[in-house]
Specification:
alpha/beta, 317 residues, 15 helices
Amino acid sequence: MRLSVIGCGRWGTFLAWYLDHIGHEVCLYGRPQSEKMAQLERTRKNEYLTLPESVQLTDEMTRAMQNDTILVSVPSQSLRALMHGLQNYTEKIYVLCMKGIEIGTGKRLSEIVAEEAGARCRSAVWLGPGHAQDFLRGVPNCMVIDAEHKEDKERLVETFSSDLIRFYYGEDLIGNEIGAAAKNVVGIAAGMLDGFGLTSLKGPLMSRGTREVARLILALGGNELSAYGLCHLGDYEATVFSPHSHNHSFGLHVAQGREYTQLAEGYYTVRALMTLAGKHGVELPICGAVSGILYEDIPPQEALNLLFSRSLKQEFN
């Protein structure tokens, strides 16, 4: 197939490498002012990989949009502006390869595409565990493709599957998108625990975190069991423990009072989750603690102490 990838960060460049690796014709787009794109155009390298000559590079959106299947890997809060600028392109399927919820509206990323791209375009999501660094070392993993239309899922799973990544068919777009976004908040909390030498509390964090996300998924009309699948609980290893996780690293830096300069999507997602929690009357203690630390200047250790002093009976009801 002929595919385009929008976004030349760590995951976007890996997607271009991977899709080329399994035999597709790939065009990678980066913004004209992007330093990452400029480096790729000069050297075809970044700190993670070298792109083969068969991967086309462009900073012209018209070139990228010549293909009908577009993989998107940009910061989640930038998605609406991107899709608004692509309104004139029709008959496309956008595969959203990032995890997040829009601040202010609480919209899932597939909802944003539906609102901005129009009825003649469709979307799918590529979610689940996996870091570019591990895949590039040949370490396999399992991921998920989900979409509203069954035929899209079937075509994309067939298109993207290989011995390196085995794809499962998602059956709950709401639950998978919410779960995938929320796991980044749990990753921040896990980093904070590590920063305070409280690694032993990751067990309670994971069990309680999954339960509160399941409650939210159910309230939004999804299947609460999706919280226990690959898009949330199944992604904890890559987020709660992996040194490659930006969200975990961000939480670690917060606990240690250090600045972190990489994108940690959970920083934004937690605000959107608290909006959804208030709107739907769902209690999210872990998200509330992280939000209080990041946005209300509550001392991290104080917020975590309060979180883990909650009644377990109350927590699991």
